[in-house]
């Protein structure tokens, strides 16, 4: 009690009240700093703006404040041809920190070449950032990062759900683009994980409700985005991911292990579509010999035993695979990046106790951003930066974002889509990403505007040094190829 009394007395003497020391949410704020970096061997000067911009209700009153970080190259005066990339992560409930401090921005985490954290925590220059070819804004949705609800009377359902999230963020993006005078600029949306659901819906909402048209959408480790799949399709589609993981951990027979992954995976994909899926559809109609033959091949490609495959009726859940593949070694493999290994309290069971990939990542990102925000961006606040914020319950009803993205592409001849997948990502696996693209364009009429890129890493493929370079270069090429000259009309010939 004495400490409380003395501190209160001191504050009163200084003219400070308790109310003045509460954590304060700035509805509108902005701090600008100037920097220089080297990208692909060339100097790139830029301005960083860290700040907050409000979300308004229909009466024009602020109901939330969103934190953003905006990077602009400063040696380019004409913004009409300068691309603008608007970047989101996922969750839902995840801040934009992941791609901001590890992928496309001018600085990246201090980690080793395979993505494992090292100390001291912090950041270093990103020699592969796309800032040389595009300006970038990283946006933290409500309750993530430093973003917060400022009107306690506003229902949480205004923000927390597939469609509410898209609606308020589209309004926010509209305001940001207007304030920054970027309506003439070629524009791109990039999202990771659930952020792909978000940007797939955003491009449609911005196009149809705000008349803002985009040149491209980049889907990093995409979710299913509401693309229908289930039963045999859902379960069969996991096998190529299982095969890639087993190959990485050298759990396959020598005839497969000796092949390069790029040569081996097409064989597995063909088996999945042509043999495994039809067999799963038949179910109990399969003869004993047919079932045995399919199980034998499944085991051969997955690194699991034929007995285990038969016990599961050919349908191996992902959680069981992560526990089973290296069970004999007493190890589990990661969900978001199956290169990572962990171990559980007990070797028994049908699922791992935790994801060793995610736990490795978390303790590198949080310290790095807190240091970077204060020391480099010079943004000072007592708010906690929420890597994962409270956004539940999340309304997942009426999910059509993948189909909405496809419709937006048909409406806008300029719009291109690129998917980036990690071959060792078990949360949003690469073969299901391909499947989504096939279903978005079932007639194949937009194939010249749709592309898929794979990397030998996991959910955040950019954490691996080799893939940080190639994945950024793929974005750079995607942007350059989807730019149009002033004489090219938006029409189908």
TrEMBL record:
GO MF terms, alphabetically ordered: serine-type carboxypeptidase activity
Signal sequence, start to end: 1-19
Keyword set, alphabetical order: Carboxypeptidase, Glycoprotein, Hydrolase, Protease, Signal
GO BP term, pick one: proteolysis
Classification via Pfam families: Peptidase_S10
InterPro entries: AB_hydrolase_fold, Peptidase_S10
Gene3D superfamilies: alpha/beta hydrolase
rRNA processing listed as a keyword: no
PANTHER family: RETINOID-INDUCIBLE SERINE CARBOXYPEPTIDASE, SERINE PROTEASE FAMILY S10 SERINE CARBOXYPEPTIDASE
Protein's name according to its UniProt entry: Serine carboxypeptidase
Record lineage: Bacteria, Pseudomonadati, Bacteroidota, Cytophagia, Cytophagales
């Amino acid at each position: 009690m004495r400490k409380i009394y003395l501190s209160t007395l001191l504050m009163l003497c200084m003219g400070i009240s308790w109310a003045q020391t509460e954590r304060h949410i700035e509805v509108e704020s902005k701090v600008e700093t100037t920097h220089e970096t080297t990208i692909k061997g060339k100097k790139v000067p830029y301005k960083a703006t860290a700040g907050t911009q409000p979300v308004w209700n229909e009466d024009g009153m602020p109901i939330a404040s969103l934190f953003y970080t905006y990077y602009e190259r400063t040696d380019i005066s004409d913004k009409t041809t300068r691309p603008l990339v608007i970047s989101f992560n996922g969750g839902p409930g995840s801040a934009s920190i992941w791609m901001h401090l590890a992928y496309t921005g001018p600085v990246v985490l201090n980690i080793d070449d395979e993505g494992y954290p090292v100390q001291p925590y912090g950041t270093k220059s990103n020699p592969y950032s796309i800032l040389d070819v595009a300006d970038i804004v990283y946006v933290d949705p409500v309750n993530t990062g430093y973003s917060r609800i400022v009107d306690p009377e506003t229902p949480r359902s205004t923000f927390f759900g597939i469609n509410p999230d898209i609606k308020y963020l589209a309004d926010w993006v509209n305001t940001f683009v207007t304030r920054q005078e970027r309506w003439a600029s070629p524009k791109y949306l990039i999202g990771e994980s659930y952020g792909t659901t978000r940007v797939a819906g955003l491009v449609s909402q911005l196009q149809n409700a705000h008349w803002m048209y985009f040149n491209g959408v980049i889907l990093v480790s995409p979710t299913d985005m509401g693309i229908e799949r289930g039963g045999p399709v859902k379960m069969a589609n996991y096998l190529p991911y299982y095969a890639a993981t087993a190959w990485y951990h050298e759990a396959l027979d020598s005839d497969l292990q000796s092949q390069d992954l790029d040569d081996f995976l097409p064989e597995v994909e063909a088996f999945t579509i042509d043999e495994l899926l039809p067999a799963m559809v038949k179910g109990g109609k399969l003869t004993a010999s047919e079932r045995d033959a399919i199980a034998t091949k499944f085991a051969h490609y997955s690194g699991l035993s034929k007995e285990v495959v038969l016990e599961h009726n050919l349908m191996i859940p992902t959680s069981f695979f992560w526990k089973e593949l290296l069970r004999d070694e007493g190890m589990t493999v990661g969900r978001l990046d199956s290169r990572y290994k962990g171990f559980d309290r007990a070797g028994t069971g049908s699922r791992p106790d935790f994801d060793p990939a995610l736990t490795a990542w978390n303790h590198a990102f949080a310290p790095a951003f807190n240091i970077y925000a204060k020391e480099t961006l010079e943004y000072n606040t007592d708010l906690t930066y929420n890597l994962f914020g409270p956004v539940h319950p999340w309304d997942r009803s009426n999910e059509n974002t993948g189909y909405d993205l496809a419709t937006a592409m048909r409406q806008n001849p300029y719009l291109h889509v690129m998917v980036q997948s990690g071959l060792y990502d078990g949360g949003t696996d690469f073969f299901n990403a391909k499947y989504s693209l096939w279903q978005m364009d079932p007639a194949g009429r937009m194939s010249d505007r749709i592309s898929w890129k794979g990397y030998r890493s996991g959910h955040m493929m950019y954490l691996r040094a080799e893939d940080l370079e190639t994945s950024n270069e793929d974005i750079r090429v995607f942007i350059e190829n989807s730019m149009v000259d002033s004489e090219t009309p938006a029409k189908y010939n």
